[in-house]
């Protein structure tokens, strides 16, 4: 296992690793996108697999933070914060390494997230909301004009108006939903090569079920909720041998544990990014 030290604030020293001595995170986002030399420890172990997809030119990563019993919130919906500071810092590092972060409209409305990089050094990714029926309010923080690209993926005939500068991507429904493969293809066509599917649980579950993730990062907190919203809900299977195969590596993140699950063997080919962002 590798150890990610106590992280959480924007500080050039935020990458200290007690096993390997001081390491610099600040240069990692640039090196990650660079010529391919290994990242300094412990970052190559954690993030090296996200540099290049093995199915096509894209890398699609899902993320969820959960309790030991695989809950992401209590029955009342309270979830801030299940994961500790190091687990939250890991999420912000993921954001700093991808081109775009995707959330469903339910998460955008309920949590009103910023989806920016704040806990570590690095650039904020483009923000994407999957909103089939035009429910997202124009005042949502994810749509705030801050110089970062903002995109809403929706049905062609969805109602509502978006703030100036927000890109609207119309996609036809497939079986009553916006298909994950179509979402990825639309983003790839706009130049996004590395994509983080951050939430909520329904959105991440749909990407897993559609075989549209290369990797899934599950950050497990040392708590047991006993009831509440599950992190993943997938189609029912009858036999264990029908289960999704997910070889994984384990990393310690402070008091949390990261399960880095490799789903590339099942990932469907989507395409390639049209241009670099």
Keywords:
277 residues, alpha/beta, 10-stranded mixed sheet, disordered N terminus
Write down how many β-strands occur, each being a DSSP E stretch of 2 or more residues. Answer: 12
How far apart lie the N and C ends?
33 Å
Q: Note the main sheet.
A: 10 strands, mixed
The rounded Rg comes to 18 Å
Mean pLDDT: 90
How are the strands of the largest sheet arranged?
1-11-12-9-2-8-4-5-6-7
Assign a percent range to the helix content. Answer: 10-25%
Low confidence ranges: 1-22
- The helix/strand class is alpha/beta
| Basic shape | globular
What would you say this structure looks like, in words?
- This protein is of the alpha/beta class and 277 residues long.
- The protein contains six helices and twelve strands.
- The strands form two sheets. Strands 1-11-12-9-2-8-4-5-6-7 form a ten-stranded mixed β-sheet, sandwiched between helices. The protein has a two-stranded antiparallel ribbon with strand order 3-10.
- A hairpin with a 2-residue loop joins β11 and β12.
- It is globular and about 45 Å long.
- The two termini are 33 Å apart.
- The model is unreliable at 1-22 (pLDDT under 50).
């Amino acid at each position: 296992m590798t150890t990610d030290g106590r992280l959480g604030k924007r500080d050039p020293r935020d990458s200290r690793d007690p096993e390997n001595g001081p390491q610099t995170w600040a240069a990692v986002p640039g090196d990650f996108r660079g010529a391919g030399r290994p990242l300094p420890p412990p970052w190559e172990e954690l993030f090296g697999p996200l540099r290049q997809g093995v199915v096509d030119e894209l890398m699609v990563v899902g993320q969820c933070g959960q309790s030991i019993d695989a809950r992401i919130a209590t029955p009342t919906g309270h979830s801030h914060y299940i994961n500790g500071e190091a687990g939250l810092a890991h999420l912000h590092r993921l954001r700093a390494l991808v081109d775009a972060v995707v959330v469903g409209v339910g998460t955008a409305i309920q949590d009103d997230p910023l989806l920016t990089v704040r806990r570590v050094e690095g650039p904020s990714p483009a923000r994407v909301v999957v909103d089939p029926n035009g429910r997202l309010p124009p005042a949502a923080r994810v749509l705030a004009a801050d110089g970062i690209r903002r995109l809403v993926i929706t049905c062609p005939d969805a109602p509502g108006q978006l703030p100036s500068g927000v890109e609207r991507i119309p996609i036809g429904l497939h079986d009553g939903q916006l298909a994950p493969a179509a979402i990825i293809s639309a983003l790839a066509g706009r130049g996004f090569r590395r994509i983080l599917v951050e939430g909520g649980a329904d959105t991440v579950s749909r990407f897993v079920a559609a075989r549209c993730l290369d990797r899934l990062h599950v950050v497990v907190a040392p708590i047991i909720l006993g009831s509440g919203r599950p992190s993943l809900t997938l189609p029912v299977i009858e036999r264990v041998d029908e289960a999704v195969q997910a070889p994984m590596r384990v990393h310690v993140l402070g008091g949390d544990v990261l399960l880095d699950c490799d789903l590339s063997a099942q990932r469907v080919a989507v395409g390639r990014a049209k241009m670099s962002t």
